[in-house]
Design brief:
By secondary structure, chain A is of the alpha/beta class. Chain A has helices at about 55-60, 85-90, 110-120, 125-135, 150-165, 180-200, 210-215, 235-240, 240-245, 250-260, 275-290; strands spanning about 5-15, 30-40, 45, 70-75, 75-80, 90-95, 170-175, 200-205, 220-225, 225-230. In chain A, strands 6-7-8-3-9-10 form a six-stranded mixed sheet, sandwiched between helices. Chain A has a four-stranded antiparallel sheet with strand order 2-1-4-5, covered by helices on one side. The chains are: A alpha/beta (about 290), B mainly alpha (about 270). The structure holds adenosine-5'-triphosphate and magnesium ion.
């Protein structure tokens, strides 16, 4: 099995009326035939402006929401299979935006153990897994602290530890850095990338920060519940105009390249997404004295 | 200013009392309370007093903590003792403005004050030496048998856990909202009682709204972590009882016997 997550032509709408017998009124259609596959071990970023359905898609990935049409598979299990719902959630962990609202216990290690307690893991094994998870996010020294004494970035790492303790194959993070300061953001991104690299955990990251997206292997851009771009960050960000149309920015380096290109610099390349490459190219242009 | 409130005053340590099984501590505290209310004379209050001094010495906590835990109940102590002194019938000792102060009244109010002090000291010792989370676990474990007849033991413990977790968060939030409203010109500390009560409304409403949003998000995060009630749940820290817990229980029961014997007049001090 190569795909950890597979959306097969799914459609979904929110409706005011929860009753299944009555026809739904006030439908808010979010997806209409959306397909997406996410490879095991990959690092995918999902971009899109506010309200385009990113969080809704994320909630389909661990059976919090079920598609109204089409099929959704998580870790090879159909998410509509109610009996295996906890199995799905063990495989696909989810981290949310506000760390304050996802920490359950008033001691760090107790919170990291919460999922394992629910799963009925025996205490000795639990101890081991909790310690490993806290070490993996670099919060082991804080295991006896109260979450209220921690910084935002530290809290978010505790929340991530609570998920990795389940030893999931995939972690879906819904704007995990949106409420953090630059230091906290860096801490969280470093942790996420290390998990992906060292433990082979599949990462699906939803974000509004382009510099975070530039660090992924693959970027999926959504607009109005559809996928409009799906490629490597390099390729995706080279479509500067297309991204602007759907209300998205590009990394600053790409932006600079774009402006230079418009001003006639031939060697400027909008496939450049990070600062180093950008600096190298600028250096070349300046030393070789390329003219317009 | 709200941040100064400390909840579940717990003083970490490694003493015998700190390391005791919390379930036994709860039972011992309960027996201690029975002792002080069973005692019907000053001499019968002697065993619980000795018991408390022993326990406190074993806890290794500073003595000034007792004074600190007493502070909030001083008005209650004064009130009950004054009531008892004046309104209990008996042989009048002094009479002021037609109200008699009786010997009975003095004895009863003295007993009452001693009992209340002992009650507060005993239960404070429990919370001083037990972290709230361990206390919650112990309560859950003790109530577990009742869940067979439909008592929501796990749910109750979960509620306590979440409350403990969110109290600091909500206090912080209240502080922020208060500052925000003050910045908009709200006067929270002045005016008549009614005005002040009205000024609280713009603080409580945002607080409620945000609490509901928090609750929703928390429920979602719990669901994502496979939460499905108390069934088939294990614990990171299972409370374990050992020899010292049973020994402590035994000693406590001996003290209770002493009180009962003194009550019955079998032992005279
Ligand atoms: N529970 C709900 N009931 C009704 N409509 C909803 C519900 N949740 C979301 N929506 C609507 O669905 C649309 C998509 O929401 P979603 O949360 O998936 O967007 P998003 O891409 O995550 O946005 P953001 O970047 O702001 O997080 C929005 O228009 C939103 O108003
Ligand atoms: Mg969202």
């Amino acid at each position: 099995m190569d795909n950890i997550i597979k959306a097969d032509n799914i459609s979904f709408y929110y409706s005011d009326i929860q009753d299944e017998d009555k026809p739904a009124e006030n439908k808010i259609q979010i997806f209409d035939g959306l397909s997406l596959e996410i490879a095991k071990g990959s690092f995918t970023v999902i971009l899109g402006h506010n309200g385009c359905g990113k969080s809704t898609l994320a909630k389909h990935m661990n059976a919090i929401l079920l598609p109204c049409g089409g099929k959704m598979y998580a870790a090879g299990i159909d998410t509509a299979d109610e009996e295996r719902i906890f199995e799905i959630r063990e495989h696909i962990g989810m981290v949310f935006q506000n760390p304050d609202n996802q920490i359950v216990a008033s001691v760090v290690e107790e919170d990291a153990a919460f999922a394992l307690e629910n799963m009925g893991v025996p205490p000795e094994e639990m101890r081991q897994r909790v310690d490993d998870a806290l070490k993996a996010v670099g919060m082991y020294e804080y295991r006896e602290h109260s979450p209220s004494q921690l910084s935002g970035g530290q809290k978010q790492r505790v929340a991530i530890a609570g998920i990795i303790a389940m030893q999931p194959d995939c972690i879906v993070l819904d704007e995990p850095t949106a409420m953090l300061d630059p230091v906290g953001r860096r801490e969280v991104m470093k942790t996420v990338k290390r998990l992906n690299r060292e433990k082979g955990v599949t990462i699906v990251l939803i974000t509004h920060y382009m510099d975070e997206a530039a660090q992924a292997e693959r970027v999926v851009v959504m607009d109005g519940g559809r996928i409009i771009l799906d490629d490597t960050p390099c390729e995706v960000f080279s479509h500067v105009d297309r991204l602007r149309e759907v209300g998205l920015d590009v990394p600053q380096s790409t932006q600079l390249m774009y402006i230079m290109k418009q001003n006639g610099y031939k060697s400027a390349d909008t496939h450049i997404i990070n600062e180093e490459e950008c600096a190298d190219l600028l250096y070349d242009i300046l030393t070789k004295g390329e003219q317009k | 200013m709200l941040k100064d409130i400390t909840i579940g005053q717990y003083f970490p340590g490694n003493s015998l009392l700190h390391t005791m099984d919390a379930r036994f501590k709860i039972i011992v505290t309960a027996i201690f309370i029975v002792m002080i209310f069973a005692a019907d004379s000053f001499s019968a209050l002697l065993p619980p007093l000795i018991f408390f001094i022993l326990a406190f010495a074993l806890s290794g906590l500073p003595v000034k903590l007792i004074a600190r835990s007493m502070k909030p109940i001083i008005p209650v102590l004064v009130f009950t003792s004054v009531l008892n002194v004046f309104f209990v019938d008996g042989k009048a000792l002094v009479s002021i403005f037609g109200i008699n102060i009786t010997d009975e009244g003095l004895i009863i109010s003295g007993m009452m004050v001693l009992r209340l002090i002992a009650l507060i000291c005993g239960s404070s010792l429990l919370t001083y030496t037990t972290s709230p989370i361990i206390l919650t676990d112990a309560i859950e474990k003790m109530l577990k048998p009742l869940s067979k007849i439909g008592f929501p033991a796990h749910e109750l413990a979960m509620m306590m856990t979440i409350a403990l977790r969110f109290i600091p968060t909500l206090i912080e939030e209240t502080d922020k909202i208060m500052s925000a409203q003050k910045a908009r010109g709200a006067e929270l500390d002045s005016g008549t009682l009614v005005q002040r009560a009205k000024a609280l409304v713009p603080i409580l409403i945002p607080l409620f709204v945000s609490s509901f949003r928090r609750a929703e998000e928390l429920a979602l995060a719990m669901e994502c972590r496979c939460y499905h009630g108390g069934e088939g749940r294990t614990k990171l820290r299972e409370p374990v009882s050992g020899g010292k817990d049973y020994a402590a229980l035994g000693v406590t029961l001996l003290f209770l016997c002493a009180v009962l014997l003194i009550n019955m007049g079998k032992v005279v001090i």
